[in-house]
Amino acid sequence: MGEAPAFIADDLHTSFSNGLHLKLNEFETATVIGNKTYVIGGINDPTSTGVRIFNKSTGNWVIPTILGTKPKAFKGHSTILLNKDRILIIKTNSKSNDSIWFLEVDTQFVEDQKKKFETEVVAWSKGVIGDAERPIVISGPSGVGKGTLINMLMKEFPSMFGFSVSHTTRAPREKEENGVHYHFTNRSVMEEEIKAGKFLEFAAVHGNLYGTSVEAVEVVADAGKRCILDIDVQGARSVRASSLEAIFVFICPPSFEELEKRLRERGTETEEQIQKRLRNAKAELEQGKSSGLFDHVLVNDDLEACYERLKKILGLDGSSDATLKTQTEVFDLPMDFSLSKINEKILINSGIDERRIVLDLSSMKGGAPGRTRGLCMYTTGN
User: Fold this and answer.
1) What secondary structure does DSSP assign to 297-323, as a single string?
2) Is 277 designated active site?
């Protein structure tokens, strides 16, 4: 069965050249990939962003499990198939910074989730104009000074770095705000999202779950900042196995004896707590130096020297002018347009004026369950 182009339904019935005849609602689009037709939007609601799949082999409709960050409801949109593994959705009458979305139907992430859920799976990913610097994962045993190094980065580059807000299943404490101190959620919801691959790392602590979601890291990048993750070696290993492209840095002491000295000089823990931290530190030091986990290992023998080495790794020259690689121009997309594809460029042809918008996908990276970044959009003509 050959491919048919995506389209917006003009009426309730649409036929393909290959004989397939579907009943569609207004504002729905359909894209054929092999024996499956992916219909986007319009399930009992013309402003829905639902997805349904028609399998020609069985003659049945399937409602898939939908993962990723789902776009807000929209009416007009056009779609075009990319490489048989994802569908590009461009919203009409929208701003350029919220017009591009991808529905992944056969990417590696979707294939992995199909095996877990044992059902049809699709995943949304928002398209982001421009790029962002890779997040930084910093690990090291307690007392090694990683918190001090992170504070030095935040102080010198206050507008460049940010922290993700973690999720937890414990109840909020007094004066804690949801979305500020933690994203407070219930255990069943978090377990389901962990199963769906929405978490980079998680751990059970005193009967409660704590974790870092992909979305929490992406939100920091959306705000124009570079996310810093201060997590233990186990968490770093989970992030390394995820889809997140990060820089992994391990901070270690000049010697185990020096680490014990620093822990004792803090004077904040009992002897029992110190011994527990030392046991954990020994295991982390062994794992931290293991092959393939961390990109860089820094010995914090001299704080200022270690900080300068960290800045060099991150491509910082000490100037506060360093910025993320983002495209700031925002413009309106027309209400009426058609799509065409030439190599890795999508041409958005306005039906109202001679203006043409070009979406360049040549530097596209990432995808569900996070963002699809590295896109470039610009206008030509009048």
Assistant:
1) EEE-SSHHHHHHHHHHHTT--S-TT--
2) yes
Q: What is the SS3 assignment for 276?
A: helix
Compare 143 and 180 and report the one with higher pLDDT. Answer: 180
CB atoms under 10 Å from CB of 142, counted, come to 20
Q: What is the pLDDT of residues 134-177, one digit of tens each?
A: 999 999 888 888 999 999 999 999 899 999 999 999 999 999 99
Whether 266 is a known active-site residue: answer: yes
Cα–Cα distance for residue pair 129/365, rounded to 1 Å: 11
Which of these, 306, 294, 293, lies nearest to 144 by C-alpha position? 306
52, 86, 237, 277: which one is catalytic?
Answer: 277
Q: Which is nearest to 32 in space by CA: 47, 45, 44, 15?
A: 15
**pTM confidence score:** 0.80
- Please give the single-letter amino acid code of residue 99: S
Instruction: Work out whether the CA dihedral 212, 216, 218, 223 comes out positive or negative.
Output: negative
> What 3-state DSSP class applies to 340?
strand
Q: So where are the chain's domains?
A: 7-129+333-380, 136-313
Question: Would you call 226 a catalytic residue per the annotation?
Answer: no
Pair 66, 198: CB distance under 8 Å: no
- Please say whether the structural domain 136-313 has been given the CATH code 3.40.50.300: yes
- Determine which one of 266, 279, 309, 371 is catalytic: 266
Q: How far apart are CA 55 and CA 17, in angstroms?
A: 17
**Main-chain phi, psi angles of 77, to 5 degrees:** -160, 160
- CB burial of 147-169 (b: ≥16 within 10 Å; e: otherwise) equals eebbebbeeebeebbbbbbbbbb
